[in-house]
Amino acid sequence: MNPKPPHSALRRIRSHLSAPATLAGLLGVAAILGIAGPFDTNEMLRLGPRLIYWLIVVVATYSVGLFAGAFLGPYLRARLPRWPALGLVGLATGVGVTLVVLAINAVSFGVVPEMGDLPQFIGTILAIALIITLVSEMIDQSQSGATAPPPLLDRLPLEKRGPLVSLSVEDHYVRIRTTKGEEMVLLRLSDAMREVGATPGLQVHRSHWIATDQVRAATREGDRARLTMRHGPDIPVSRAHLPAIREAGFLPK
C-alpha cells in the first residue's frame, strides 16, 4: 500500500502537464531546440519536422521525469534520507530518458548509437538527469524555505499542495486535507502519517490525524473532545487520545 497508486499518480501527472505554465515552458524549450538544431538535427531535418521532433523529445523526456517522481518519489522519500532518495529518482529518470531517446531516434532516423558509443551516451544522459533532479530540488527548497515539504504532498495535484491540515480515514482511502484543498488517496493512515515529514501533528482518533498548528479551538465533550480546524470540518478526539490533546495544551490538564 505504500507506493503511490497508479491512478493517483497518473491524475497528478495529467494535471501538471495540462497546466498552462508547463505547456508554455515545454513549447518554448522545443522551439529553441528546433531552431538551433543541436546534435546535427539541423542537417538531418528541415525546420518543420525538426520542431516536431524536438517537441516530441521534450514532452516525452519531461513526462519520464514526472513519472519517476510521481511513482518513486513518495516511496523512496518515506524510507531514505532526502538526497539519496532524490539520487535514485534522478537515476531512474535517466534510464527512462535514455530508452525514450533511443526509441525516438530509431523511429525518426533509423539509427542507434554503435556499441562503442553507448556507454558515453548513457552516462551523459544519466549525469544530466541526476544533476537536473538535484538542482531542481535545491531550487524548490530555496523557494519554500529550509524545511523540506512533506513527502505526502507528492501524492496531491499541484494546485492542492499546501500546509497539511488533517488526515482522515474513509473506507480504504485517506482524505488528505491541506490549506489549498483535499484529495482522496488509496493509503493506510499509518503510512500517510509516516509521510507527513517535519509537520508537527498528533493522531487524535483511530481514523484522524491533525496538524497541531491548524487547530483553532478545542471543545470538551464528556470523556472525548472535538477540534475546530482552521480549514475544513471539526475533527473528533477519542477518549484514548485525550491525554495527548491535553499535553499539547489544547485542553486544561
Task: Report on the architecture of this protein.
This protein is α+β, with helices and mostly antiparallel strands and 253 residues long. It has two domains: 6-148, no CATH class; 153-247, LytTr DNA-binding domain (OB fold (Dihydrolipoamide Acetyltransferase, E2P)). It contains eight helices and eight strands; from the N terminus they run ααααααβββαβββββα. A five-stranded antiparallel beta sheet has the order 3-2-1-5-4. Strand 4 (201-205) and strand 5 (208-211) form a beta hairpin. Helix 5 packs across helix 6. It starts with 5 loop residues before the first helix and ends in a 6-residue tail after the last helix.
Oligomer: single chain
Total of domains: 2
SSE pattern: HHHHHHEEEHEEEEEH
Instruction: Give the number of helices.
Output: 8
**What portion of residues belong to β-strands?**
15-25%
* Silhouette: elongated
Q: How many whole angstroms does the radius of gyration measure?
A: 23 Å
Strand order of the largest sheet: 3-2-1-5-4
Q: Structural class of the secondary elements?
A: alpha+beta
Residue share in helix? 40-55%
In brief:
The chain has helices at residues 6-17, 20-36, 41-44, 47-77, 82-109, 118-144, 189-194, 242-247, and strands at 164-170, 173-178, 181-186, 201-205, 208-211, 215-221, 224-229, 235-237.
Which SSEs are present, and which pair or pack?
Layout: H1 6-17, H2 20-36, H3 41-44, H4 47-77, H5 82-109, H6 118-144, E1 164-170, E2 173-178, E3 181-186, H7 189-194, E4 201-205, E5 208-211, E6 215-221, E7 224-229, E8 235-237, H8 242-247
Antiparallel strand pairs: 1-2, 1-5, 2-3, 4-5, 6-7, 7-8
Helix pairs in contact: 1-4, 2-4, 4-5, 5-6
